[in-house]
Design the sequence.
């Protein structure tokens, strides 16, 4: 910073420190409620101080002073943060000049330009002519260092960012200002793939950047797909049990039939022994037939339940003396 700029900064500092509290927080002060009782004779009542405002203003002044110290120490980044915090607590156009100096010191010409322009706009007639001329000179020196970009997208309403900092939505009514160097310009919109370009800009460049956004693939609609119901394991379990039972009883029936033949052919067999053997064989044969038939019926029902395309099925299988009974909704 030149000696002339240094003197400007010192003048601003002096103005900020000597300015009354209401000068830096424009429009924030309010009158306190009137006090009761009359002041002592010969003395004027002191002006009321809004108690709720004092801590906020005190913090603003503290941060402003801290910012001055940090700037003098060469830490423009930390100084800018303190100045911006002071501005948030007690907005005053005077602080914008200091913020602009910090941005310029860190080579952020775009933000420095915005701060100086806002300083002149907000200050209006309160800015002296010589000060206005000096700030305009700062602005003129900054402009050649800034590039301008016209950003367009194939869809409206896309959010455009420069180095991941949003700068607006398309379509733009103005050009985007960017600092010199490599800049990442991107556009995003819900439901679409983002588009990004990385370009190198020099001061005073005027570029056109077109970003093409592509729709995201739509999620497949599975609402009309046919879904097979769960496999009815209980029904298949009963079918298997009946089939196994039919096989076991069938083997027993065959053995009983063989025993019956041996009894009939055995010399000296009584009529009672022959009748018992015949009755046993007949009983086992009937049971085997019933179990086999039940297994076939249960298997058919199980297959139907497995292949039938219904959303809901509720079945109950019961083993009865006459076979298998399956009750439910199909």
Sequence:
């Amino acid at each position: 910073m030149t000696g002339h700029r240094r003197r400007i900064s010192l003048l601003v500092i002096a103005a900020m420190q000597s300015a009354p509290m209401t000068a830096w927080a424009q429009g924030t002060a309010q009158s306190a409620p009137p006090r009761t009782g009359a002041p002592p004779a010969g003395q004027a009542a002191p002006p009321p101080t809004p108690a709720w405002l004092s801590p906020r203003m005190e913090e603003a002044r503290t941060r402003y002073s801290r910012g001055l110290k940090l700037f003098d120490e060469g830490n423009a980044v930390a100084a800018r943060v303190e100045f911006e915090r002071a501005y948030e607590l007690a907005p005053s156009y005077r602080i914008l000049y200091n913020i602009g100096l910090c941005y310029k010191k860190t080579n952020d010409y775009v933000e420095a330009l915005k701060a100086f322009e806002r300083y002149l706009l907000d200050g209006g007639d309160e800015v002296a002519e010589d000060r206005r001329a000096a700030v305009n000179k700062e602005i003129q020196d900054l402009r050649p260092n800034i590039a301008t970009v016209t950003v367009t997208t194939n869809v409206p309403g896309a959010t455009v960012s420069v180095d991941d900092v949003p700068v607006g939505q398309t379509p733009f009514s103005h050009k985007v200002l960017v600092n010199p160097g490599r800049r990442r310009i991107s556009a995003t919109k819900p439901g679409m793939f983002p588009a990004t370009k990385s370009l190198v800009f020099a001061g005073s460049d005027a570029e056109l950047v077109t970003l093409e956004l592509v729709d995201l693939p739509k999620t497949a609609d599975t609402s009309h797909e046919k879904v097979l119901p769960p496999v009815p394991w209980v029904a298949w379990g009963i079918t298997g049990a009946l089939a196994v039972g039919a096989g076991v009883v069938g083997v027993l029936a065959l053995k009983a039939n063989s025993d019956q033949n041996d009894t009939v052919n055995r010399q000296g067999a009584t009529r009672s022994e022959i009748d018992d053997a015949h009755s046993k064989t007949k009983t086992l044969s009937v049971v085997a037939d019933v179990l086999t038939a039940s297994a076939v019926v249960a298997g058919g029902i199980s297959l139907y339940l497995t292949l039938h395309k219904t959303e809901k099925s509720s079945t109950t299988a019961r083993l009865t003396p006459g076979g298998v009974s399956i009750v439910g909704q199909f």
